[in-house]
Amino acid sequence: MKANERKNIRHLTLPELDEYFLGMGEKKFRSKQVYEWLWQKHAHSFEAMTNVSKELRAKLNEAFDLPALTVNATQHSEDGTIKSRFKTFDGHFVEGVLIPTELRKTACVSSQIGCSLSCKFCATGYMERKRNLTYDEIYDQVVLLNEQSEKVHDKKLSNIVFMGMGEPLMNYHNVLKAVERITAADGLFMSPKRITVSTAGVAKQIKKLGDDKVKFKLALSLHAANDKKRNEIMPINEANNISVLVEALNYFYKQTGNEITFEYILFQNFNDSLKDAEELMKIYRQVPADLVNIIEYNPIDAFKFSKPNEDVTEKFMEFLEKNRVNARLRKSRGKDIDAACGQLANKN
Questions:
Q1: What is the pTM (predicted TM-score) of this model?
Q2: Does residue 95 carry a catalytic annotation?
Q3: Does residue 280 contact residue 293 with C-beta atoms inside 8 Å?
């Protein structure tokens, strides 16, 4: 670290804060006081720490940075979905979405600024990946979306999905650290069972999740049930083909017992035939998956596919149901503000 660079205070552990305060002759309880402001009271400046003396706040301001996400813009959908564009301390933008239903208030959060995977159907995949989000930036998204939920619906968030911009498993450390802070008793204290991390399929990292005994749910963005088609729309499949992913998912389940979901977007005349449904069924039977989410395609400018008609979709679903595949047709939310699955791209 250069002499003129200050460390982000939220990147210090509680023991490191203890050491800092004791080293400057302060009482040890000061570290818990400040830590509470950082992670439970969500202070975005040292000035906000009102039970800390002005002199000590000034010293903290000299010694540390406290960068935080801010809400740059919001859009409200006709269906109640709210999309927020957040601005980072270094001038980048990233999007998050609050998806309300009667039963749930779900935050869809991002893990990267842009994405390097270039999935053809995903607007974020056409953006350059600028950098990974830090764990405190991911945490801030949840805090800000929770504040929206409380303000608009008078209810706290019930669920969090890592299905926004970026590939979570290519920002492994920060995603797991963010989940640790979100679920910690001295953080947001949310249950890990209410958190789902979605991946395009990084087999090595899926296995690592198993080794690390994570407690959250896992979703695999499958979207095609054979390698030829999946290669066409998801370049990551060339290095992480379906058989490799099936092996990784089974390893993950063996290590954790956590819920696994498949995500499958229907594209007209591409992956919506009964043969495709049969191939999907065969994959489902190879993995102890709880659910297959069948998702209607949300159009983006760069990808010229469209969603199948209702009759084709109905036959696809009927085949899965008849063959005892636990499948659910997921209706898109927030399409009118480009907030639906695959549409996040800082477009406006």
A1: 0.92
A2: yes
A3: no
